[in-house]
Amino acid sequence: MAKRTMADLDLKGKHALVRVDFNVPLDKKTGAITDDTRIRGALPTIHALLDAGAAVILMSHLGRPKGVTPSLSLAPVADRLRDLLPGVAVAFVAECVGPQAEAAAQALPPGSILLLENLRFHPEEEANSPAFAAQLAQLGDSYVNDAFGSAHRAHASTTGVAHLLPAALGLLMEREVAVLGAALESPARPFVAVLGGAKVSDKMGVITNLLGKVDSLLIGGGMANTFLAAQGYPSGDSLLEADRVEEAAGLIRQAQERGVALLLPDDVVIADAFAADAASRVVPAAAVPDGWRILDIGPATTARYVATILAARTVVWNGPMGVFEFPRFAGGTRALAQAAATATHAGAITIIGGGDSVAAVEEAGLADQISHISTGGGASLEFLEGRTLPGVAAIGER
What we know:
By secondary structure, the chain is an alpha/beta fold. The protein has helices at residues 37-51, 75-84, 99-106, 123-126, 130-137, 156-160, 171-185, 204-210, 223-230, 245-258, 299-310, 331-345, 355-363, 377-384, 390-393, and strands at 15-19, 55-59, 90-93, 113-116, 142-145, 167-169, 191-195, 216-219, 261-263, 267-271, 280-284, 293-297, 314-318, 349-353, 372-373. Strand 10 (267-271) and strand 11 (280-284) form a beta hairpin. Helix 9 packs across helix 10 (245-258) and helix 11 (299-310) runs parallel beside helix 12 (331-345). The protein is elongated. The N and C termini lie close together (8 Å).
């Protein structure tokens, strides 16, 4: 059933309390914002609320503070918002609840913005304290959740407030739910999923769920090593979750039984150390020598994965194929990013989620050639796993 959206709210002249995801990366030395993608991602919802005549009160977390942590203040985000929204008054208040926050909210006129201080300065946020949620709810007449990156967390600002005010999805959240939902429920076929990253334990549930939905499943990254071990291949000094080998073998059998093409590396790029300048060579996946470790998929595997992506009509990708932070071991990831962009141009729906795979696509300058870049790493994984996201479930149906 369709969730309530901003079109279902009475906004003119009212205060809209909006949960956004401004958990942006900061320079460790200067404290400057190094990537404002998440701030820009909230702008369509902010503009829509301002155009509807609302006073907009924004709330977010930043990092993992232990109590009040000045280096994790959202004040720099307010400065960036002023740059991104010329002509719009953007105020900042150094609290998110209590008299100071309430006074700032009450004084906020329609057409302007107030950014609250970091929610996680208060432990009651992550504890989903009803009293803390009630304090937040006092600041607004309605609630909008536009923070997909936090939708898998049942916190006061993501679920508690939603039960206390008329609540709706923001534009970003609405698109995330629609795009990911359509990919899982009614994908254009062939439907190809690409999963990478370091640990297979993080994605066992996702693989299990996707095996009932996809036509092909491509495995890369460190997690592929556990599947290769399940086939009896030596792993050398590669990252390996030995306690998951039997489970990986079971997933290989499930894929065979379901008629799903589960693709694993045929060849790999190995290195004699985990370092950008390590000696490297390409070997068959079944012949990794002692003292060496797998850091990328090999060229033959890359070609096979690229061909599978180019033949797809729906592609979902989460996780890099190798240690893409090291240029010499980024070949597989970059080739798949280009393949996804090419598939998009050919009419496929391409969806990329997860911080590392998104970063790889952005570094390659291909982000604008992907159908949908998901803003929620953990949230998109749990969605793909078929789990209910608390932040979405808390929004009622129309």
